[in-house]
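Re: Re: token formats

Sure, here are both.
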Amino acid sequence: MSSAGICEWQATRAAALERLRSFVPFAGKYYATQRNYDGGPGDRSNVSCLSPWIRHRLILEEEVLSAVLGMHSKAAVEKFIQELCWRTYWKGWLEMRPAVWDDYRCAVGRLKTDLAGNMALHDRWERGICGATGIECFDEWARELADTGYLHNHARMWFASIWIFTLGLPWELGADFFLRNLLDGDAAANTLSWRWVAGLQTPGKAYVARAGNIVQYTRGRFQPHGQLRERIEPVVATAAPPGKSLPETGQPVAGLRSGLLLTEDDLCVEGRIFDDISPVAVAGITCADSRSPWPVSRRVAEFSKQAVVDGLSRAAARYDLPTGALYSGDTAAWISGWCETNQLEQVLMPYVPVGVAQDSMRQMQSELDRRGIRLVQPRRSWDDQLWPHATHGFFRFRKSIEQLVDG
């Protein structure tokens, strides 16, 4: 990060660790009092900008937690720790309610068809994603997202609210726009944040973008007085299904010829789940292009690809193996050849949560089952400790965070 606070994301663990080191001194009072201000793409000095690396687990949440507690008291970094754990909360909530993700994906497909036959809707949607609505703040955020792959969290909330309540656009199309342009876009945080703004995640309680709030927290950079619809009604939809238990993960069987498969969801091969395995081959897959029925940002696709390449390089070094190949597209087609070439009896991969990669895994799972090859997905202790507590709202979830920190 430069002195001006401009963030540049290189898709490597080394870059993530460097950014963490530079941010840690500011994670206490400074972050707590300044984090809500959106200074624009030229000034990100008040936020960590770690989310693209955390989303791909080039760096782990527990590493970030340990670093900030190593320099600050628990009380001083309470707000930062809560923000760090929001992504964990969303992931746990969706993991126990995968139908919400499936419904979203179906809705996006349905809306793509609707856009082709509804020119008024198509025009509003196109002006929204191109930053041509005439609402200066919104248009600037749309262009910033497309240009950088990032938006300040407060700007994401304002943008989503304007999209839904001022422009009258379906929330699913906005979530899709974010997912194909955000470097840190993932199924849980993105989908559920949009649902929260719409008033679906906490039924009856939508988020309203108010001109005065935007003026205050952009320090007057934007003045959208009279342009926003501030009297709103939450979106109404069928209630989310009750949560179910987390899936079982299984344990590796010693003595079987094993291959290590990495996805863009978890690339920290330095973690404990990798301690007791001895793979004979490593490979990686990237599913970024499957995030949307529309083209995914080149920046997003390239970041995802390079992140997996970085993970493969580190995995090869750890296990003294040749750097594995990177695959995309038809997972069933290549998994068969990879397993046959390496005479694999077992495939090990860090747990793949609900989302695009898991959708792609279904075909792969069927092919492995057909060949009699075990698929084992060890889950990290961070997720096992926190995900089961994502049963209600975040404020109840905070108690489990406090227990984790105290423990």
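Second one below.
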Amino acid sequence: MNISALVFRVDQINSKRIHIFAHVILLFSWLPTFVLHITYYFKNHSAIFIIDTENNEATYTKVAKEIKFNRADIFRCQITTAPRRQAWKNYSYVWFILNNGTYV
């Protein structure tokens, strides 16, 4: 559970009120991870990624667009992770950058 949500809930139950500034600081503590997730979601909503281990190929399908590639087609892998101080510190995703400049 996120610490800011926990503090907010304790503040509602407890008769002593925490200053709104403390809530704003706690809100910004999870904002970078939330932005990371939202960008991933909008770029990959309804996408399907299939790895064929027999033929050593991967297939990325989104709507009507299908991209097939193998290891030789990959120029670089980019791993995007959440800041380490966050509650979601293990949250990450990977982009495959192909030789033709396509991001999968």
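Residues 38 and 44 are 10 Å apart (CA to CA). The longest helix spans residues 20-44.
- S.
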